[in-house]
Design goal:
Elements: E1 2-17, E2 21-35, H1 46-61, E3 65-68, E4 74-78, E5 85-91, E6 96-102, E7 106-109, H2 116-128, E8 135-143, E9 151-156, E10 170-180, E11 183-184, H3 186-195, E12 199-203, H4 217-222, E13 227-234, E14 237-244, E15 248-251, H5 257-267, E16 277-282, E17 288-292
Parallel strand pairs: 1-3, 3-7, 9-12, 12-15
Antiparallel strand pairs: 1-2, 2-8, 4-5, 5-6, 6-14, 9-10, 10-11, 10-16, 13-14, 16-17
Protein name: 6-carboxy-5,6,7,8-tetrahydropterin synthase
Pathway: Purine metabolism; 7-cyano-7-deazaguanine biosynthesis
EC number: 4.1.2.50
């Protein structure tokens, strides 16, 4: 007997890629269970699937930075500055990134690269250990949203957030729509998706001096003049990141989707005073904010 739940959850995360750097991503999760019927004539109660399995997935990878620890581009060590924190140094073809975060902000995947297969195997192993014995099989389908137009991948952190959005390197795969006097502008959509392709978005308020950043000793020896530094303390702990300016956009606001929509709207020059601009910015799948200018 098989039981399925489509669109069980959406995982929003970032991952380290040898070519692209740190990449924001959003995947929809479908679940298929194989097993015999239990005493309630069920493979598993839908309420358990929706609550327990979703919670396991969220705890394992959602709003985390996924590290392919079998790849030599990743170097991890215990923080010498804070308890239950880690230093993570990431060396990629595109840019080098250096971080400190609470351990819970990272997911270590035993693979050479982060992709649907490696994350699927990681999650399947974790989930199966928590399911009752009548469940013999689990099939996860991880899939990106089908977006007909342009989209971008971004990574950020929200220091004021009480939940996991406070983690300094989590991200999203998002589309964006622009309307000029109620007419859609695909040219603007393409421009912003190219501008924010695999971008790290930081708030100017979180900028710190090089002397105040907390990183591994090896990272400090690898910093270049192109690196910029951001840090904050949130409920889960201390967060630090050094990002190369070529993969960075620094905004004059926090990076909530509401304020990013407003930021984008403010960046667009109006050719005519009477022109109206509407920005529909998405944060991952099926949620976002609308700003007008």
């Amino acid at each position: 007997m098989q039981l399925f739940v489509n669109d069980l959850t959406v995982i929003d995360f970032s991952y380290c890629c040898p070519q692209r750097g740190i990449v924001g991503e959003s995947w929809i999760v479908d679940v298929l269970l194989d097993g015999s019927l239990n005493e309630m004539s069920m493979v598993l109660d839908f309420a358990v699937v929706k609550k327990q399995i979703k919670a396991i997935i969220d705890e394992a990878v959602d709003h985390k930075l996924l590290l392919p620890i079998n790849n030599k581009m990743i170097e991890c060590s215990n923080s010498t500055e804070n308890v239950d924190h880690e230093f993570v140094d990431v060396y990629t073809e595109r840019a080098d990134y250096f971080l400190q975060s609470p351990t819970c902000a990272f997911a270590k995947i035993a693979a050479e690269e982060i992709n649907i297969t490696s994350v699927n195997e990681h999650l399947t192993d974790i989930i199966l250990k928590e399911l009752p014995t009548n469940v013999q099989g689990l099939t996860l389908t991880l899939r990106p949203e089908n977006i007909a137009g342009d989209y971008y991948h971004y990574t950020h952190g929200l220091k004021l957030h009480d939940g996991n959005c406070q983690r300094i390197a989590h991200g999203h795969r998002s589309k964006i729509n622009f309307y000029i006097n109620d007419e859609r502008s695909t040219d603007l959509e393409l421009f912003w998706c190219q501008r924010w392709e695999d971008i790290y978005i930081a708030s100017e308020d979180d900028r710190v001096a090089k002397a105040d950043i907390q990183l591994s000793e090896q990272a400090k020896n690898k910093l270049t003049d192109a690196h910029q530094y951001f840090s904050y303390t949130a409920p889960q702990g201390r967060f630090d990141i050094a990002v190369d300016e070529k993969v960075l956009e620094v905004v004059d606001c926090d990076s909530t989707v509401e304020l990013l929509a407003d930021y984008i709207a403010r960046q667009i020059n109006k050719p005519k005073p009477t022109q109206t601009i509407k920005v529909i910015a998405y944060e991952g799948v099926g949620k976002g904010a609308i700003a007008s200018a």
